[in-house]
Specification:
By secondary structure, the protein is of the alpha/beta class. It has 13 helices and 11 strands. The structure holds phosphoric acid mono(formamide)ester. The site of phosphoric acid mono(formamide)ester has 9 residues, from α2.
């Protein structure tokens, strides 16, 4: 039984099959792939797009979604093994995953890092525990990667610039007042290199590079799929000739848990915001962001309101790609 936890577990052609199905859904195809099926959506963190698109996608394919918020509307869970459960958790993931598997045909998890210790957070314990003890497929709704967003992003890229291979793609760090998850940034590198794009990571300095695991996978993907991967701290060099600019803010990993120290550094790079002047250096480039996004912090009003901004298309695509992912997993 295959889960959908990271696109690293899937070949380019397997992902392309999902994207082709997502295109059919986007063009109006209907499906009853989830008729009489149920989907558990576990949110440990807030959401607008993910929750709406999974609930509606399940309903549109004849199924029923149950939304649970552990620690709020559902019991707080423990993910420690062998411990005496004398803290706030009322239930262990072992029982929760097994019970939900008796009720539901798919289990979807959103569980962000705790932002205290990256060496611990990078183990992705919550979704891995669900995958271990569930007897139905598990889908990642964002943990330390965001694979559903990856497919929605690639569907939008293909829609707007055609075949992605060898097109210049830039993932740019951008400023946010708080340190954010690296999940979408990791995912951006994974999917753009998986589809053979010439990928540049633009970030303020070495401290904002991403985890070696994802930098390494990006390099490996680029070698396997005919693209390239490099990084720079030079804004002009990165934007020059780019066809896709994807913006995201994230906290610097060496300062994980020491966020007051990190903020002093991060605040020096507010000029990384994507604006019309920077976009003018691109090759008629398209701009996108996963959303939610703070205007005039990450990207200017001018960029967000431009005809080259494809962020709303990407958000819409969440619905289509997730219907394709759920169909693939339920039919395996
Ligand atoms: N992009 C994304 O996952 O949006 P939400 O956090 O609103 O679900």
């Amino acid at each position: 039984m295959k889960h959908f936890i990271t696109t690293a577990d899937y070949s380019q052609s397997e992902l392309q099959t999902m994207l082709d199905m997502a295109d059919e859904f986007k063009q109006g195809a209907t499906s009853e792939a989830l008729k009489n099926k149920s989907v558990a959506l576990l949110f440990f963190n807030p959401s607008l797009r993910t929750r709406t698109s999974f609930e509606l996608g399940t309903w549109q394919m004849g199924g029923h979604a149950v939304v649970l918020e552990p620690g709020k509307s559902a019991w707080p869970l423990s993910f420690e093994f062998g411990e005496k459960m004398d803290g706030v958790a009322e239930e262990h993931v072992i029982e929760a995953a097994k019970v939900l598997s008796r009720f539901c045909d798919l289990i979807c998890i959103r569980a962000f890092p705790k932002f205290e210790n990256w060496q611990d957070d990078r183990k992705d314990k919550v979704i891995k525990a669900f995958a271990q003890y569930s007897t139905v497929p598990v889908i990642n709704m964002e943990t330390i990667t965001h694979p559903c967003q990856e497919l929605a992003h690639m569907q939008a890229i293909s829609q707007h610039i055609g075949k992605p291979q060898k097109k210049k793609y830039v993932l740019t760090w951008s400023y946010h007042p708080k340190p954010l998850n690296t999940a979408v940034a990791n995912s951006s590198l994974l999917i753009a290199t998986k589809f053979g794009m010439d990928v540049t990571l633009l970030c303020p300095n070495e401290r904002f590079l991403l985890d070696d695991r994802y930098m390494g996978l990006a390099k490996q993907n680029a070698e396997q799929n005919g693209g390239s991967f490099n990084y720079t701290h030079d804004i002009d060099e990165a934007y020059e000739g780019a066809e896709i600019i994807y913006a995201k803010s994230w906290g610097a990993l060496p300062y994980f848990g020491k966020w007051d120290e990190e903020k002093i550094i991060r605040d020096q790079y507010q000029h990384f915001m994507v604006d019309e002047q920077k976009m003018a250096k691109t090759n008629n480039g398209k701009f996108s962001h996963c959303l939610p996004m703070r205007r005039n912090m990450i990207a200017s009003d001018g960029v967000m309101d431009s005809n080259y901004c494809i962020a709303i298309d990407e958000a819409e695509n969440r619905l289509h790609v997730q219907k394709a992912i759920m169909t693939q997993l339920i039919n395996q």
